[in-house]
From TrEMBL:
Active site per UniProt: E252 (proton donor/acceptor)
Lineage, uppermost ranks: Bacteria, Pseudomonadati, Pseudomonadota, Gammaproteobacteria, Lysobacterales
Protein name from the UniProt record: M14 family metallocarboxypeptidase
InterPro entries xref list: AstE_AspA_cat (IPR055438), Peptidase_M14 (IPR000834)
Membrane-spanning intervals of the chain: none
């Protein structure tokens, strides 16, 4: 019944595949898997540096793990288009702009099986989106220096998706508070505060940073530094925990703020990626 109510609002091929096709003259594009939902096939594409060198560190950018988080997808594409060759010869770039194409079209958090890919990045995942990305990245374990996963926190998290999650799991819905502004999620098991700060400093030039709430928290987690909270990435099955990279972070843009435009949201994601790569290259040994 839930799935029958999901409708297509935008087109993955028009919005994303066409943008990736326009990059083929400068980057290598590969299909690392596909998803078949109700007879419709969604190719999963990755964009790589042309002239990949095995001796160089890998910089990984993922977007669209949650399909409704628009700037995660379009920020990743904008970064590749405008800055994808900035560090040619210094690092290998791997960008997966839209991990969840079915959800992108339906502006949703879940896949058609009501599974959140971003709690299921592990071997044997029930999420086809997560399983395909885990398989793509498995040969790169130990070689990824930096992984930045591009997300948004939206008003619909509170108005739609958290109530739906409670209903799906048969639990009582407990209202929360959506932060107004950009923030980051560091890894509890491998905190990198200077790395996070470098990203916050760069993004603050583009859009505002989320303050803590009255409890000193952002979405229920203590703020450990301005605009930064921590999650146990691998334990929770989050995308940024896949590779065991030295430097990991999850961006959270707030597109519903009256103080931010859609272009600002994309620009904030681009600024975050650029700062993350620059910091990782300047501090390869931590």
């Amino acid at each position: 019944m839930w799935r029958s109510r999901q409708t297509k609002h935008r087109d993955f091929r028009d919005d994303v595949l066409s943008a990736i096709d326009a990059l083929r003259d400068r980057f290598d594009v590969s299909e690392y898997g596909s998803l078949d939902y109700d007879g419709e096939r969604f190719p999963l594409l990755a964009v790589r540096s042309r002239g990949w060198q095995d001796g160089l560190p890998v910089m990984l950018v993922t977007g669209g793990v949650h399909g409704y988080e628009t700037s995660g997808v379009h920020g990743a594409l904008q970064f590749v288009r405008e800055h994808g060759n900035d560090h040619a010869g210094q690092a290998n770039l791997l960008v997966v702009p839209c991990v969840s194409p079915w959800a992108y079209e339906r502006i949703h958090r879940w896949n058609p099986d009501a599974i959140d890919p971003n709690r299921n990045f592990r071997e044997g995942s029930p999420s086809g989106e997560a399983a395909a990305l885990v398989a793509l990245l498995a040969p790169l374990r130990g070689r990824v220096l930096m992984h930045i996963d591009l997300h948004e926190t939206t008003d619909s998290d509170e108005s739609e998706f958290r109530p739906a999650l409670a209903a799906r799991d048969g639990k009582a819905y407990e209202p929360g508070e959506i932060p107004d502004g950009f923030y980051l999620v560091d890894d509890t098991a491998n905190p990198q505060p200077e790395f996070q700060q470098a990203i916050i400093d760069a993004v603050a030039k583009v859009t505002h940073i989320a303050p803590a709430d009255a409890n000193g928290e952002i979405i229920g987690s203590p703020m450990v530094a301005p605009g930064v909270i921590e999650y146990a990435l691998k334990e929770l099955g989050l995308c940024a925990g896949i590779t065991g990279a030295r430097y990991t972070t999850t961006t959270e843009v707030y597109p519903d703020s009256p103080r931010a435009t859609p272009q600002q949201c994309n620009d904030a994601q681009v600024a975050a990626v650029r700062a993350a790569i620059a910091y990782a290259l300047a501090h390869p040994a931590g």
